[in-house]
Amino acid sequence: MSNEQVYTLVPSTNRGRYALDDPQGYDLTSGQPVSVLLGDCWTLGHIEHKRLLYASARTGQAEPGYYFQALNGTVCGLCTGMSVCLR
């Protein structure tokens, strides 16, 4: 990853989305190919969105959200502070 720009996920000013480095910056969206740093390993995959994905601590009901899907099919929730590279 030495030649690629590494970004940090931050909450976007667009509710429910993630932006790169700056809340008013570039928002990730479904289908966006990325690499995510998981542990000490860069993992290739893409961003996806699901209508009923996360359980809300506020309401106890499922809410929509974005997640990372690796090329091998593994799924990981997104969170602020994650390191990503655009592909």
Description:
There is one protein chain. The protein is mainly beta and 87 residues long. It has one domain (7-86). It has no helices and seven strands. The protein has strands spanning 7-11, 18-20, 33-38, 41-55, 62-70, 75-77, 83-86. The protein has a seven-stranded antiparallel β-sheet with strand order 2-1-7-3-4-5-6, with no helix packed on it. The protein is globular and about 45 Å long. It starts with 6 loop residues before the first strand and ends with a strand. The model has no long low-confidence stretch (mean pLDDT 89).
Question: Which terms would index this structure?
Answer:
globular, mainly beta, seven-stranded antiparallel beta sheet
